[in-house]
Amino acid sequence: MVKGRFDVPPALPRGRYAVIGDVDGATARSLGAELNPTALLLALDEERVRKSEYEVTCIGQANRQAMAGHVAARDAFLSGAAELDVQLAYLKASRQRESHVPYGNIIGINAHAGVLHYQHYDATPPAKQQSLLVDAGHRYRGYCSDITRTWAGEQADALIPALIEGVTQVQQQLIATLRPGVDYVALHKRMHDLLADLLVEHRIVLGSPESAVANGITRAFCPHGLGHLLGIQVHDVAGRHAADGVALPPPGEHPALRLTRELEAGMVVTIEPGLYVIPMLLDPLREGSVSREVNWERVERLAPHGGIRIEDNVLVTTDAAKNLTPEAE
Questions:
Q1: Which of 40, 123, 150, 259 could make a disulfide contact with 308, Cβ separation 3.0–4.6 Å?
Q2: Are 293 and 251 in contact (CB under 8 A)?
């Protein structure tokens, strides 16, 4: 580690300076420096990919604090609370100000659970308490957690508890496969295979699992990526670059995927499969040639519940994975 200007090894270049930050080019030039040189930024980003023991400890504590909030949010919802009440219960139990959360909490009751970044917090309880989706974290000493849970209300359709359990099992199967060398893009595609099995099992999709994936049906039910790197930033850096800085863009059919490289020991990633009823994504299927492969009666039953997502934060170890997200009590 270089601790001072005189510790720089002789082999490293000297006389080159860089300004890093949101400043104008004229300022950098006046200092005789380069502004945000790409090679340097990529190298700095790469140093953040593998977490130290201290960083993992901080992320673990952020998870424990957040999970206390998730439990309180669940209990508030089941008692008949509005979204705003659920938000306040989460903040109180996780010991956070709203201005200090790592990202705006997503708290969606019923159909609002299908809005991927819903943050409006209705102040009036809904007439029916059918489902709750909470995507919320905590920041501890600068390091973030990012957890999602979905809960069925007393007036939920009978399909909802079964689908929540099914998505949870999909997530746990994916976590069990995490280890160094696993291609995250392949893992994302495996998520779609497992979600297709789940949709067919519950007769939401009437065709085969293979057809559901090939025809884009699973992408309409789950439009986001499997997850991302996690650290100082919720969507941490270098997820779409190889270790040497070469860009690794997501595949064309999965443009929202934020992590496209092979897993390495020391990475902390999120694993967050989901299923949603989003009309603007499902309507083209209803009007297209694959309409007969979807059980629209069941889709309509699910629509008032919005969506389901289960998200944990997982450390890749030398030979397996360690889930940093505790179980809800």
A1: 150
A2: no
Q: Which domains does the chain have, with CATH numbers?
A: 11-41 (no CATH), 51-323 (3.90.230.10)
* Token pair belonging to 258: 């934020």
Angle at 99 between CA 24 and CA 146, to 5 degrees: 90
Identify the three-state secondary structure at position 39.
helix
11 has a pLDDT exceeding 90: no
The gap between the terminal CA atoms of the chain, to the nearest Å, is 43
Cα separation, 191 vs 200, in Å, equals 14
Contact 68, 136 (CB under 8 A): no
Report residue 146 as tokens. Answer: 């990012």
What is the rounded average pLDDT of the residues 49-55?
98
Backbone torsions φ then ψ of 14, nearest 5 degrees? -120, 160
pLDDT (tens digit per residue) in 211-228: 999 999 999 999 999 999
* pLDDT tier for residue 31 given thresholds of 50, 70 and 90: confident
